[in-house]
Amino acid sequence: MTSGNHDESGPGTASTGDDPQGLDAQWLESAIQGAERQARDGAPPFFAVVVLNGQAVGAAGNTVVLNNDPTAHAEIMAIREACREISRTRLTGATLFASAEPCALCLVAAAFAGIERIVYALDADGAADAGFDYRAGQALLGSGIHECLRLEHLPLPDSIRPFTSSRSR
Amino acid sequence: MTSGNHDESGPGTASTGDDPQGLDAQWLESAIQGAERQARDGAPPFFAVVVLNGQAVGAAGNTVVLNNDPTAHAEIMAIREACREISRTRLTGATLFASAEPCALCLVAAAFAGIERIVYALDADGAADAGFDYRAGQALLGSGIHECLRLEHLPLPDSIRPFTSSRSR
């Protein structure tokens, strides 16, 4: 699987009280770097990394158009890769790091996979401003999703970069 | 892809005012037959068929355990196969026939894929009675899903058969 590349994060990485070492920001930066690679390749600028017990066990970008697969969102592909990697159908205790706020489909898939926490960089409003508006789909969800998952917005200085450099808009 | 087997439906197939030729029941019977094959193989007794312009373009069973993939529900696998088959990312105008009521993940995936109508045989309560209770997941959804999809329950005499013969409970 793709390396998380989290050693490449430089000084100045954000850290919070809940994450004194800034590990969340480092994993999230690796997702943003993945999204940038997607953008450079003309693919949708979305990328996700699944981290379990401090290790990246899945990392993938959106391949919807590449594979003619409407379910091949970055988060779902990363979940599928992670489950293959650990030979299980559940990712209990894992955190999903996503370059942008997950859509309704990915939130439900994450909940079904037992993901406990999702950290994302750019929010859906920011993605919409950059030409990728998937907010209408959120109306499919009820409030129950927030009882299954902790959803945390961690904006980083680089959050918007994959979107502004994207050629797939 | 797997044939729809819809010519095998015998006399006595249910028909309704909306479906005078009983085609819905025939496609649904083919999904039930697929679920029975799953059950015979010790796999989860769920199967789905995607029909577009009167043709089965995708047909698949649940392979969650077989492939360590928590997203490999029958409906999602059938949608993925259908999109590959027609080389598109959307199934606009298609109907999904499912041996049992789709779970929350499959409903959202179907909506994202542009499926317009889902017809299912056994409802979630019936599946729960047979040992497969996925009703809690429905709480993840809001009412918006019903604005995207027409969801029709068409119980057939054979609806419960894959579940009672299942070895995977």
Compose a concise summary of this entry.
Chains A, B: One of its GO terms (molecular function) is catalytic activity. The structure is a homodimer of 169-residue chains. Chain A has helices spanning 23-40, 64-67, 74-86, 104-113, 124-129, 145-148, 161-164, and strands at residues 47-52, 55-61, 95-100, 117-122, 150-153.
Question: What would you note in describing this structure?
Answer:
2 copies of one chain form a homodimer. The longest helix of chain A has 18 residues, at 23-40. Chain A is built from 7 helices and 5 strands; from the N terminus they run αββααβαβααβα. Chain A has one domain (21-165): Cytidine Deaminase, domain 2, CATH 3.40.140.10. With 169 residues, the first copy, chain A, is of the alpha/beta class. In chain A, 51% of the residues are buried. Chain A is globular. In chain A, helix 3 (74-86) packs parallel to helix 4 (104-113). Chain A binds chain B through residues 64-65, 67-71, 76, 79-80, 83-84, 87-91, 103-105, 107-109, 111-114, 137, 139-145, 148, and chain B through 64-65, 67-71, 76, 79-80, 83-84, 87-91, 103-105, 107-109, 111-114, 137, 139-145, 148.
Task: Please describe the topology of this protein.
Two copies of one chain form a homodimer.
Chain A: H1 23-40, E1 47-52, E2 55-61, H2 64-67, H3 74-86, E3 95-100, H4 104-113, E4 117-122, H5 124-129, H6 145-148, E5 150-153, H7 161-164
Parallel strand pairs in A: 3-4, 4-5
Antiparallel strand pairs in A: 1-2, 1-3
Overview features:
Cytidine Deaminase, domain 2, Cytidine_deaminase-like (chains A, B), catalytic activity (chains A, B), 169 residues, homodimer, alpha/beta, CMP/dCMP-type deaminase domain-containing protein (chains A, B), globular, 35% helix
